[in-house]
Amino acid sequence: MGQVIILLVDDLGEVNKVLNQIMYCEVMEEEMGEVKILGLTPEEIRNRSHNPQKYYNIKQMLLPNYTMGADYTKLNMLRAKVRELEIVALDAFVDGKNVKQPEVVRTLNRLSSIFHIMMCMYLAGEYK
């Protein structure tokens, strides 16, 4: 059981590194390149997020309830917070058709998908 918990912590640590990279690029006004998250390309993230039944045998976007456990609910809370941050980033970086730091906005969108994937992995027993 200890190894599985480490995997969740490792995945959360990788998400944290991506958030740090976003912050660095924004503060230093540097372009952010395309990043892999949890070893997944943007296309793989999209495929897994949009097809959880195929990859995890989990129905699409199950809303949390008490039977799913506190960790699932916390992952959903993190997903919602990243989604809020994505909306704030759109306000901050989009001016008409001009987008400053487009890869930051895309990466935030992918991070919310990553949390959805992690929620699916949790329900599939990959973190239990």
Write the layout of secondary structure elements.
Blueprint: H1 2-28, H2 42-50, H3 52-56, H4 70-93, E1 94-95, E2 98-99, H5 102-123
Antiparallel strand pairs: 1-2
Helix pairs in contact: 1-5, 2-5, 4-5
Task: Tell me about this structure.
- With 128 residues, this protein is mostly helical.
- It is 68% helix and 3% strand.
- A two-stranded antiparallel sheet has the order 1-2.
- A hairpin with a 2-residue loop joins strand 1 (94-95) and strand 2.
- Helix 1 (2-28) runs antiparallel to helix 5 (102-123) and helix 2 crosses helix 5.
- The longest helix is centred in the N-terminal third of the chain and has 27 residues, at 2-28.
- The radius of gyration is 15 Å and the shape is elongated.
- The termini are close together.
- The relative contact order is 0.19.
- The model has no long low-confidence stretch (mean pLDDT 90).
Summarize the structure in short.
Helix content is 68%, strand content 3%.
Sequence of secondary-structure elements: HHHHEEH
Structural class: mainly alpha
Radius of gyration: 15 Å
The 3D shape can be described as elongated
Q: What is the mean pLDDT?
A: 90
Instruction: Bin the strand percentage.
Output: under 5%
Q: Biggest sheet, strands in spatial order? A: 1-2
Total strand segments: 2
The portion of residues assigned to helices is 55-70%
Number of helices, where a helix is a run of at least 4 consecutive DSSP H or I residues: 5
Distance between the termini: 7 Å
Largest sheet, described in full?
2 strands, antiparallel
In the predicted model, the low-confidence regions spanning at least 5 consecutive residues are none
